Amino acid sequence: MADIFHNFPVNASPEKVFEVISRSGGLDKWWTKSSEDNPRPGGIYTLSFGPPYVWKALVTKYVPGKEFELEMTDADSDWLGTRIGFVLDHKNSVTELRFYHTGWPRLNDHYKISSYCWAMYLRILKRFVEFGEEVEYENRLHV
Fold first, then answer.
1. Is residue 107's pLDDT more than 80?
2. Domain containing 23 — which CATH number?
3. Count of the separate structural domains present in the chain
4. C-alpha to C-alpha distance for 116 and 110, rounded to whole angstroms
5. What one-character-per-residue DSSP string does 71-120 give?
6. If you average pLDDT over residues 88-106, what whole number do you get?
7. Sheet of 2-10, strand order
8. Sorting pLDDT into bands at 50, 70 and 90, what band is 62?
9. Which residue range forms the structural domain that includes residue 35?
């Protein structure tokens, strides 16, 4: 199995970062084209990236201001069963964000492309939280 990890600081409170990583209003600013949230353990999220990419995920960890994790339950075959998570630590007025996407079935081209895309999306997340910058969905991998 293969895993993806990205760690970086965000100049914002853990509560603000948590809101952006766990709620539709935040997710749609940096990752999804549109989404529906159900922010609680066992809740189901709908993550839309435009037709035909409308995926579902189960909330497996939900600790406000600290930890959020989704298990992909309806997605591309490489993503099925994978876990996408965020761990937040507040240190010296900065939130240290530890991101992971674990459980990939194989180290293939889709894994490599996704690792790159996650880095791009997480940069947009950071810029949105810190500066309020917004990037239209269609342009997110081109900035």
1. yes
2. 3.30.530.20
3. 1
4. 10
5. EEEES-TTTTT-EEEEEEEEETTEEEEEEEEEEESS--HHHHHHHHHHHH
6. 96
7. 2-10, 94-104, 83-91, 67-74, 54-63, 44-48, 34-36
8. very high
9. 2-131
